Amino acid sequence: MRPDRIMTAAPERTGRIYGCRSCFGSGRPGHVRVPESVPTAPGGARWVWQTCPARCTSETRRAAVTAEVARRGIALAADSAGTIPRVSPVRDNEHQGEVQPPAGTASHQEEPAPAVSTRATTAGKARRGAGRQESRQLVAAVALEVADGGQLVADVADLPAPDGDGATLPEVFGWVAAVGPVIGVPRLHADVRGSDGTVCLSAAVLRAAKLPVKLPATPAAMERTAGKLRKAAAAVGLELGESIGAGFKAFRRASQGGGPRLSVRVLVVPWLGQGDAGAVASGALVTALADDGTGTPDALTLARRVRRFVADLGVTPGSTTAVTSRQLLEAVRPRFGWTQDDAGRWASSLRPGALPDGDTTVPVAAGARHPVTRERAAARELLCEEEDFKWWARELTAEEAELPYAVAVDACASYLSVTETLRLPAGPLAHTASPRFDKADAGLWLCDFSGIETEAELPHPATFTGIRPTGPGWYTTPTVAYMAQAYGFDPATIGEAYVSSHSVAFLKEWTGRVRAAYKAGMGALGVPDTLTGAEFVTAWQGRKAVADDAGRDALVLVDAYKSIYKGGVGKWADSARHRSDDGWAEEVAAAWHYRPEVRHHIIAAARIAGHRRMRKTLALTGRAPFAINVDQLMYAAPAADLASLLAVRADGKPEPGTVRLGSAPGSYKWDSSVPMAAVSESLAARVHPSRLTHDYDLTGSPVTTTED
Questions:
Q1: How confident is the model at residue 112 (pLDDT cuts 50, 70, 90)?
Q2: Where along the chain do its domains lie?
Q3: Exposed, middle or buried by CB within 10 Å (0-12, 13-18, 19+), for 139?
């Protein structure tokens, strides 16, 4: 385990100036943090508190504070309790080079001026609470443009306007240095950092600053441009990250003395989508968010969408949607927490129930690229194959073949409908030859479902092919629990298992944020989850008819949120084909987020939830799908509508637990109506009929464009 995974700073947003020049910004006047070699500690080191190397006193610290406040032009007006005046909110960043103890601990309480009693008054406490609230008022993203008069202008009115009458590169970085501390994203948990905010530079800014509007095409040209950027940043006390491309870091260390520490991500928006993967460090997600609808990256559009993205999810967009999914999980459920020993020293350690680093894969579910899987497959040994449905094995009945249409419905956010309460394997999976099944325990179980009868009209619930198994197989807890509950499978017959030592619904907070973001976006498009039936169908068909920025933003963001939960599920079994085998084994398979058995549990739970809805719909309507592609169902129908499929109560409301229309996770949208003649041709050619759903609209007429 790398030391930097242990020695990670817990955020401190006190927004205060205190300490001498040597301990300034440490969060504890008169003290600094230094690394200490501890062979028994995770990573071999930890951070500890030591006395300030300058041996400062309360008087020298107060003099340093007064000088710094004066330098910034802030009036030094201590209150009756002697508290030190607040300035612009200070945000932690990954460049500070020192570790903070957790917020809310004794060393993070407000320190009164040394010459005044340490007993805080009620008024002082109120002011401190207000200051903490102020420190959370950060701006997630801001765009810099050039006004008609040639001066820089920001698209966020609450931020100070850039100084000067021009838009030179020094003026750009001067403004970043001035307002950087309030550009950021608050943390979502006490044991994690906040995220860097984003500054978006427009094409007009590049032209005014005499920078190329297109990403330099050669290494030499890129180096010249990077040197120009570094020189301008250094002139105002900022440093830039090692890699400079379409995105780079601008930061100021706490020890530099040029102001509070800061770290922001600068995006050169016109450069997005250009160059190779190394140069375009900003990633595909940001590039997609910047598209103004014409294929052109736009700074104002990107900043506006990033602010909405952060407001919805609480984290900044990562390089990809899958990476963003992982970062969100780390932000709401951190793996490391802070502990204090008897000597008052702080260190971070793995939290109870956290997923550990290292290759913890189970032989029967090690992932498609893992050498263990290849060996077992070559030896024809059993593997866990819990995947989404890909089924079309059932022949049409005589009645179905005579019907004129096949209607296709597709589940909305099927994974999000199960992940909130799904118990997943947080601890290692231990092998046992005499398992005792408990649906509360996540695990992989060797079961034989071949002798159990299921509905002939429906796919077999335990296999992604929908075909009845012919012998034993490895299945996850959701599948085994459903087979026991719905079809009478006897868990006592389970031969062996890999059972997690700790099972918990660790995607609860992750699910809540992604689902809320998805629902907010759908609501902005006029498709709230309260709509069902014909109202929903009408709203869904018209969701893309947007005429303003808010509507266009919602369309883009909803697509991003959908990709985040889908990509996040896939990330648990990342094959990373762009890496070599050795690189994959070291950087992917050994990472905490490589857990193929977690992906198997999620997919199995979603597949089972869909099967349960199909089963109840069959019982109430007599209708069953004849083909399924993941969570898209195709039903034979007497007309190009869903009247024969949907089960409704006497009051017209949908029957709970059935296939029902709506935008809520787990509900279904109407994709298309396909003429049965075309379906029959596809089946005869042994081609999955789901491919036809893009070729026909809801009326069964051919279309020339595709529908999401």
A1: very low
A2: 3-135, 141-319
A3: buried
